[in-house]
């Protein structure tokens, strides 16, 4: 076979051209030192790969140059990332070692290249569950440096773009991995363009004929689509111009992959999908009028086109939990095609496109309880879209596991265990086995001795230390966060309490006998009332523990063996002595580190209840006030008077009731008030203190004050209220001034 001549001189010129093209897109690397470092990395890589060629016959160096260019241009990464992208294959494929990297460049470069080298082994497994497991482990490296993942995505994108020269086997393997792992990862990182390109490329190699077919059909129909959109938007544009709106209209076409997916998953024909359009009208409107303006545009659109009533989505009155605000409607075009129209302001559009990154800019936006992942992703996106190098350093310090709320830790044998974020060594012990949990006295994390309360992090190796003498403690309920561990601890505590109570019961039986009091439930109830315990079990328990002294049992009369107390017991048990606005019985807060019980009151500005994160603030005249950590005043108090702030934590007693306000809104409906009050008082058995409703033009607003035990109790109540048909929002009233 004839081999094409390779013009080495021309190749050298081409390599330099590509290198200069890289420098041109390195906008972040402006300083001379940075450019020198990129040059050095280029030279090291060039020499290391000098005798290597890609499958296509091209010099190997084209690949690292292209990956570095993607990192700089499409991901907007920094100099360190560009260096590492250039060097990414050197340790795996050439004479360069990790020590060389550290000596030539630095410690960070070494860590990243090490991560990149390790990842490449991840997919050499046949079955997908093993791959998924390895993928998870790979994500653990994120806690070292998030650049590893981003450079890996750039590497994968370039490999996908140049997959033509690979054997069919390799093409399929790489395309499948891409579909299975990398496209979803890009999606979760908010890198939508990269996700779409990866999916389209994967399809191109997996289903070449179908891919080509869709591409050809899209090209053929392009002119038709453009004409359709122009015609469709023409009357809308005229009307908006007349009304003096400033706006832009965007239309969206589907990706090849999403069309293919619809054809296969929903069994529809290409003709039914290719011209399913969504257009977006983005208004340049001030915040005060944006909502009203959106509705005016809605009315303009529906003047020309018939809307489908069941496809109106109003996320401007009530934004999605993700913070998404937009008004969507689907209207019928004259040719009988449905067109989705999205209407939003520029501010809303930025929120939708940039998610939480935008929330921080518009600081009046309500705080929504989204996962930490979103905040993290928003930061990544923000970094990728605008910022300075400092921001990327910030992510490094932000050592959260990537996927959701989970961490991955290892047993001494190397088995991987999944726990929720913030899980402690104690949770891990119960996760292994309840017996390990019951007898757990401490742990070794990465060979270092730590207490039970030690918070675990992804990648930790954990060994639990046990002792036969150890037994579950009340305090463990503050340490364990996983529901299963907490349940096991509660069961064990209850079991222990029962055993102790048995002794108390026996003591009471003997005392009754000697006083000639009969063993009747009516007498036991009288005792419970007199000592103000919750149940007979509590009564027995306190007798056994000696907090109720039966020798002092006096001041009662006997009638036919029935006991009757003349007056209420004078001396309260010491632990129930709490003053001021604190709830009536049971201690509620343990304040400070010594866990002593201190007088306190609950701040009116944020109304804390058990389960809320709280802190104590020493006031001048009113003792300690307990505030929620997200109280509107908290930041000021903590920053200006840090020395007056003390730690506070709820004790585990759940017997106390706290008053909380809830506000509702919804669609007015006959019987709605009835349904709501039924849920509160009958289904949930919650005491209601006040309730008010007001209906206006079919919309109602209501408020109710209820007594709950803690946030858990409250959240269950809120959830069941939300499930009532017609109820749109249920929110806690955070302060009396809300
Ligand atoms: Mn590579």
Could you explain how this protein is built, in words?
The chain is an alpha+beta fold and 738 residues long. It folds into five domains: 8-186, Orthogonal Bundle (Hypothetical protein af1432), CATH 1.10.3210; 215-362, Beta Polymerase, domain 2 (2-Layer Sandwich); 492-570, no CATH class; 589-650, no CATH class; 658-733, 2-Layer Sandwich (Alpha-Beta Plaits). Helix content is 47%, strand content 17%. The chain is built from 28 helices and 22 strands. Strands 1, 2, 3, 4, 5 and 6 form a six-stranded mixed sheet that branches. The chain has a five-stranded mixed sheet with strand order 14-18-16-17-15. A hairpin with a 2-residue loop joins strand 12 and strand 13 (562-565). The longest helix has 35 residues, at 208-242. Manganese (II) ion (MN) binds at residues 63, 88-89, 155.
